[in-house]
Amino acid sequence: MTAQESTSPERGARLLLTALGFLLVLAGQLAFYLAPADQATATNLGVLLSLAGAALVLVILVYGPPQWTTQLSARMSLSTTTVLIMVAILLAVMAAGGEIIFEQLGRLNYLPVLVLWALSALTYVGAFVADHPDPAKVRGWLTGHRRELVLIGLVTLVAAGLRFYQLGSIPRVIDGDEGRIGQAALTTSRYPLANPFALFENFGGIYIQAIGLALSIFGHTPFALRLLPAVAGTVAIPAVYLLGRRVLGSGAGLVAAILLAISHAHIHFSRIVSVAYIPETALIPLELYFLLSGLQDRRPWRLAVGGLILGVHFGVYVSAQVIVAMLVIYLILAAILAKPLLRQSGRIIGPFWLGVFIAGLPEAVYAWRHPSEFLSRLNADGTFQSGWLTGELAATGQSAPEILVGRVAHAFYRSITCRPSTSTARGYHSWTS
Predict the structure, then answer these.
(1) Peptide bond preceding 192 in cis form (omega within 30 of 0)
(2) CA atoms of 73 and 12, how far apart (whole Å)
(3) pLDDT in tens, 135-154
(4) CB of 345 within 8 A of CB of 426?
(5) Contacts for 426 with CB less than 8 Å, ≥ 6 apart
(6) Are the CB atoms for 85 and 131 separated by under 8 Å?
(7) CA-CA distance, 70 to 8, in Å (whole number)?
(8) What share of the chain is helix, strand, coil (3-state, %, to 5)?
(9) What confidence tens digit (pLDDT) does each residue in 46-70 have?
């Protein structure tokens, strides 16, 4: 029976066993890489796993899956999407496990771990390939919105010019925090920052390693040190436009992009590497855009991409922790204030959080193994740890619950005081301040 003639359960079994063989080969190659030169056991394990995986794939291609696996596939209702999601989770687990082993063995080259991590994200996106937009429709949309795209393209070019003009010379002084981050970036070939999921004062290892890569390519210059913030500051312009367009329309999105492009604070911080606020001005709008558009349009692939971006965000800065907490609270508010939206689309939010899990698992493992580093910024500046609450109790005479509730009410003031407006175009309730 050919692949075209095979039944759906057989296709599921074939794909599952082929994926298993592929994972065995990857595990074997990882064992080869980790095997000490004087230890035959790990080498033999690598040979065994690689041969077993290759043999399994060959048998499946030639003879097809065994009958019992086809029956199991039928009982489990295995689809291509389900199998690819399972593979993505296993790849993420392998990446997290590899990270632990590499750290224990003192390995400094984490490239195999990064490859597994990237494969897990790509496989997860591929699981929703059937949900991806039709290329013909995409081309039609691009043609119909040429003027809009040209405008945002021009705004982005202006923003890039403002951020890259004499980047290495203006400002002419490398401040103390820039120097400290640059020194950290130069140590990414050594422990602990050789681990891309390590943390440096809540700066993610991925971000620090990216800065180190720029320094290695362009030399130890101010331009190389500041390159990543300038790139992120430029990417933030179309990212903000996408979110603004989704929430309030193309006009509002364009105004938001223009204001951000010429914002003095945003330009300034895009030209120094002292803080990681600028990368999050690109990441957070994208996370929210893919989450909101995925819910509104019922497109799981957008939710999956948004979740993956948020998972990667954990490897950039501490703000990812804040966004997760805010999203949980906003979803609770949405369940109360925007019931039609969640009633129609709430059941498909799973791909978002699963994407966060897949992309964020290696970082979560590092945080579990090194909790003090994961919580370092909160321990230093947190409401309780920093002594702020104690000072407010003494200064105001209010109780702790009153102060904390006031803080939360202030933070979510716009959500609490929002008013509903009906959108007939999409059939859901939107909320505007």
Answers:
(1) yes
(2) 6
(3) 777 778 778 888 989 999 99
(4) no
(5) 296
(6) no
(7) 9
(8) 75, 5, 20
(9) 888 888 989 988 888 888 888 878 8
